[in-house]
Amino acid sequence: MTQAADDAVLISQAQAGDRSAFDSLVSRYEARAYQYAYRLTHNPEVASDIVSDGFLRVYTALANFRGQSAFGTWLYRIITNCYLDYKKRDKSSRQTSLDNAIRSEEGEIERQIEDTSPGHDTLAERSAREGAVQSALAVMPEQQQAMLVMFHVEMRSYEEIAQVLDVPLGTVKSRLNRARLALRDQLSGQKELFFSG
User: Fold this and answer.
1) How many Å separate Cα 119 from the centre of its chain?
2) Residues 124-159: pLDDT tens digits?
3) Per CATH, is 118-191 categorized as 1.10.10.10?
4) CATH for 1-91?
5) Confidence (pTM)
6) Cα–Cα distance between 144 and 139 in angstroms, integer?
7) pLDDT in tens, 93-119
8) Are 123 and 155 in contact (CB under 8 A)?
C-alpha cells in the first residue's frame, strides 16, 4: 500500500472518530512538520508551538478534508499559515544566536556544536554563508521566506508549493523568482562569501 493510500485509510478512520488513527498520522508527519517549522523560525520552542498549533488545526478541520491534495501538502499549508500567523502576532521576534545559552529546567546550558567539517576554514566559511543567508531571509517578507525554504531546503516542487499556498503555478514561479532576486540583492554586499575568483 502506498503512503497516500495508507494516509487515506487513516484519515477516513480519524474522520470516523478513531483517535489512534489520528495519532498515527501525527506520528508519521510530526518530524517533517517540525523540521519545516524549525527551518522557518530557527527557534526550537517556536517551531514546536507552530507544529502543535498546526496539528490542532488539522484535528479540528479533518472532517472537512476531502483529499483534493495529499495530506502532507495540506499539512504544509496549515504549518505555513501557522507560521505566518505567528509572525503577524510577534513582529518583535528575533533569531536566536548560536552564542546564546539554551534555557532548560536545570538552568542554562551552553550550546555545543559538533565540528564535523573537514577543516576549520571550511566550517567557518560555511557558517558565514549560512549566517548571511539567514540574516537576509529574516528581513524578507514571510511569504518569500516560506517559498524559498520550501523549494530550496525542503525540495518541494512548484506544484506542491502552489497547493500549499493555494495560488496558481505561474504565480509560484514568478513569486519564487522575485524572492530569489530579493535574496540576491540582500546578499549583494557579501559577494566574497558566495563567489570565488
Assistant:
1) 29
2) 677 777 777 888 888 888 888 888 888 888 888 889
3) yes
4) 1.10.1740.10
5) 0.61
6) 10
7) 445 555 555 565 666 666 555 545 455
8) no
